[in-house]
Design a protein that fits this description.
The chain is α/β, with parallel strands linked by helices. The protein folds into two domains: 218 residues, Aspartate Aminotransferase, domain 1 (Alpha-Beta Complex); 252 residues, Aspartate Aminotransferase, domain 2. It is 41% helix and 11% strand. The strands form four sheets. A five-stranded mixed sheet has the order 1-7-6-5-4, sandwiched between helices. A three-stranded antiparallel sheet has the order 8-10-9. Helix 2 packs antiparallel against helix 18 and helix 9 crosses helix 10. The protein is globular, with a radius of gyration of 22 Å. 50% of the residues are buried.
Length: 487
């Protein structure tokens, strides 16, 4: 089957079955521990799935960051790495790939996406600045606020609706953008940030038409556009699927067009090309020179930026593979399948299906758990206990406290079940669906959580919690009654 034929395959639709357009050549053993051991493990991990040991995890659906499966071409490319501190030929391969895929002339390597956020925030944000965006990401918000900025989320109203048929819930509201500029003045807005496939609201994409409208407003007021391209491949895929103008446009052309609207493009290679690392790209030499000096200071020399040259080699190959529709469609097709199957069982999930993972609405799933008792975190812990599947809380635990020490309640309480590219099989996906369904049928047994150890910054990474009562033990008792000695 040639590329033109594969690009016409439709993986999507209510009854579509996702097809793995790859074969498995190397496998890694998994462990499905008994339920009592899982209960003990989550207790030792402070009811925070980040603190679980992978030896206790069956399906690791915490994130797609650095967990995507590399291709045979990526792995073999690592053997060709040029181990040079400066002027490595591996870097120039990556530079060429970025120029071809993103269409940007100047490249700064960094060790991962949040390093790029640090550089961009330090250089362009000053105290009192306003940064409008479709939606924040946790580390983005932290970097921008540490440098004195204030983020303002101006996504369209559809973006925060759990159930929707809107194809582009990650769009910026243009009227809100104009009002924000009018109220604060363009001089207080260093840039407008667009996140490709907005992570915290269910991996929802924005459209090319919305980018055009944002660009028009930005140009009228002399404001930069900064694009977080970490999930740009998936966003491009959704544009091809959902925006009629681009249904026959190759992914590579959509990617180039998206990047053409941005003055600065930064990305996490842990997502966009299945390797560790990241980068910052621009066509402006002036902007490049403003940021350049921070790379040797924080990351490493300009031709490795904190990455190993082996990762750089694999990144170059992975970037090119991101333009291949048979690669980029894999994660969205499995997410779509999971969302459809859970919907059939009346389980509340974000629709339409987005990028990165299936997102379960914890506030509806656990409607009896107050938001101040962290329902998304409780649901993540409960699902791990009864399945061994590790998801991630994307709700108030991932938020912050205000100046009075009160939780800033999140707009959504989501359990994210990530689907890294080319990692899980259909049978594993069906196992997950079955266990989520059982948990939903027994959701009344799940209670809330409370913090017992809370870092001041990015508390969701290292914070430790405890159940508000003995609900985990009751959940295990019901599980054993229904499943017997089954894992």
């Amino acid at each position: 089957m040639n590329h033109q034929e594969t690009s016409s395959i439709n993986f999507f639709g209510e009854d579509a079955i996702p097809v793995e357009l790859h074969k498995v050549r190397i496998v890694q053993k998994l462990h499905l521990r008994p339920v009592e051991e899982r209960l003990d493990a989550i207790g030792k991990g402070g009811y925070n799935t980040f603190l679980l040991n992978t030896k206790d995890v069956f399906l690791d659906m915490l994130t797609d960051s650095g967990t995507n499966a590399m291709s045979d071409n990526q792995v073999s490319s690592m053997l060709k790495a040029d181990d040079a501190y400066a002027g490595s030929q591996s870097f120039y391969k990556m530079e060429q790939a970025l120029k071809e895929v993103f269409g940007k002339e100047y490249i700064l390597p960094v060790h991962q996406g949040r390093a790029a956020e640090n550089v961009v925030s330090q250089i362009f944000i000053k105290k009192g600045d306003i940064i409008p965006m479709n939606y924040h990401f946790t580390t983005t918000k932290a970097h921008m606020e540490l440098n004195g900025g204030k983020i303002v989320e101006i996504l369209t109203a559809e973006g925060l609706r759990i159930k929707s048929k809107h194809p582009f819930k990650g769009n910026i509201d243009i009227d809100q953008l104009k009002t924000l500029i009018s109220n604060h003045g363009a001089s207080k807005i260093p840039f407008i940030r667009l996140e490709a496939s907005t992570n915290l609201i269910g991996g929802q994409p924005f459209s090319i038409q919305n980018m055009r409208e944002v660009k028009q407003v930005a140009d009228e007021h002399g404001i930069m556009i900064v694009l977080d391209a970490s999930l740009i491949g998936e966003n491009a895929w959704f544009i091809k699927q959902r925006e009629a103008e681009f249904k026959n446009t190759p992914i590579k052309e959509i990617l180039r067009l998206m990047c053409s609207f941005a003055d600065i493009v930064y990305f996490s290679s842990r997502k966009v090309s299945s390797t560790r690392g990241g980068g910052i790209c621009t066509n402006s030499k002036e902007l490049f020179l403003k940021m350049r000096d921070l790379i040797p200071l924080y990351e490493g020399f300009l031709t490795y930026g904190g990455m190993s040259v082996r990762e750089i080699e694999a990144m170059a190959v992975g970037l090119m593979e991101t333009t291949d529709e048979t690669v980029i469609s894999q994660s969205p097709s499995f997410i779509e399948y999971t969302v459809n199957e859970l919907e059939k069982r009346n389980i509340p999930v974000i629709t339409p299906a987005g990028a990165l993972g299936c997102h379960i609405d914890a506030m509806s799933f656990l409607s009896h758990v107050p938001q101040k008792e962290y329902p998304a975190g409780a649901l993540a812990a409960a699902l791990y206990i009864i399945s061994g599947c590790r998801g991630m809380e994307r709700g108030t635990i991932s938020s912050v406290r205000d100046e009075n020490g009160e939780d800033v309640l999140a707009d959504m309480e989501l359990l994210r079940l990530a689907f890294p590219r080319r990692v899980f099989t259909l049978s594993q996906t069906k196992f997950l669906i079955d266990r989520v369904h059982w948990l939903y049928e027994n959701r009344g047994l799940v209670g809330g959580l409370k913090f017992v150890e809370e870092p001041e910054v990015l508390r969701f990474f290292m914070g430790r919690l405890a159940p508000v009562n003995d609900w985990p033990q009751k959940l295990v008792e019901k599980f054993k009654k229904d499943f017997g000695n089954s894992l």
